[in-house]
Amino acid sequence: MDLTFTPEQTAFRDDLRSWLAENPPDPEPMDGGDDAHFAWRRDWQRRLYDAGWAAPSWPAEYGGRGATPSESAIYFEEMGRARVPFSANTLGLLLGGPTLMVWGTPEQKERYLPPILSAEEIWCQGFSEPDAGSDLASLKTRAVKHGEEWVVTGQKVWTSGAQYSKWCMLVARTDSDVAKHKGLTYFLMDMEQEAVQVRPLRQITGEAEFNELFIEEARIPDANVVGGVGNGWKVALTTLMNERAGLGFALQIRLRQLLDDLIARAAGQGLLEDPLYADALAELHVRCESLRLMAWKGLTDAERYGQPGPEGSLVKWLWSDTNQRLTELAVDIVGPEALTAGTGWSYEFLRARGNTIEGGTTEVLKNIVAERVLGLPRLKAAA
Ligand SMILES: Cc1cc2nc3c(=O)[nH]c(=O)nc-3n(C[C@H](O)[C@H](O)[C@H](O)COP(=O)(O)OP(=O)(O)OC[C@H]3O[C@@H](n4cnc5c(N)ncnc54)[C@H](O)[C@@H]3O)c2cc1C
Hints:
The chain folds into three domains: 7-117, Acyl-CoA dehydrogenase/oxidase, N-terminal domain (Butyryl-Coa Dehydrogenase, subunit A, domain 1); 123-230, Butyryl-CoA Dehydrogenase, subunit A, domain 2, CATH 2.40.110; 234-373, Butyryl-CoA Dehydrogenase, subunit A, domain 3 (Up-down Bundle). It contains ten helices and eight strands. It has helices spanning 7-22, 33-50, 69-81, 90-103, 106-117, 232-268, 275-305, 312-334, 344-351, 362-373, and strands spanning 123-126, 142-146, 149-156, 167-173, 184-190, 196-201, 210-221, 225-226. The site of flavin-adenine dinucleotide has 19 residues, from strand 1 and helix 10.
């Protein structure tokens, strides 16, 4: 892996850097709650879209710039460096769009990709259920075919951004008589129907980022099956691999910013002279650098083999563990402010608790790394 930029990569970085310098986002809204915050991120995505920067890794035919994975990494690094917000339609841009590019029909790509990019239609991910999280294949939401449409009934949970979404990447059971992985189908479900009720769940941070979905005979046209009936498991894996690789890259950059902020804070308080704090910060620095290099390697592999591999699970696991350590150390350094509701550090500390659950729990990611990266034997259930 050669991390020296080519002249093209340097030009790409300079273009983006100067655009960001001339087009900063509006200041983050301090009032108006979750809705105002979401509107702010949506507006930011629209501005990126107008300038052709919403998703440079997407092929030019779908509105991107056909950027290589390395250029895509440069993109995330520059966005992080400029400290701009995440786009409102992050799940559409990083998960839904790339999944459609692999599995979608030409009609689906033409219909759904442009409004993902422009943030006109927001996407959410309807995978997890009350009794099916890590063991996704045991999900119970059922879809039954009636003529040219599917009738869907069931419950989803933890559906991030569902309250703002037009489309849901929904995995449902379409056949109960075959092995559980084989009886699943991946749908695009229109959220704007009476049969889909969205109930926000308030988190420890105070925000309602995710929701419960109650689905009672919702209708999905047959044309909204993605990747074929009974093929939902494979399509869902494409979504999950993009989640761990794409989001992992963006998140390790955010981690670096937080660490820089914490080091500055510790320096301001004279704590860098204290070997205990200096050691802990140095260890976090080493972890951040390892994560950065691993994330780059993941993208280089994706460039070489055409899609992200299971190594993304390692980045996601180490990122979540490091972010939790960092925010815990921040509580020691920052003091009571980091435990006071409404402060930036308290938000980071509380939000980090979910990091080892979302996008695959740490235990499950360790299993993937053991079996699919290291080639260790599968753990057998005790008799
Ligand atoms: C902030 C946040 C946002 C989320 N957003 C979404 C979203 O938008 N869409 C969506 O579909 N889901 C979303 N999720 C759900 C997330 O993917 C699940 O919570 C996750 O997959 C775990 O499932 P579960 O909560 O049912 O836990 P369970 O699967 O019930 O796990 C419980 C415990 O058992 C352990 N465990 C389970 N299986 C194994 C195993 N084989 N080996 C060892 N240990 C095991 C787990 O590690 C965990 O500690 C989100 C979660 C969070 C926290």
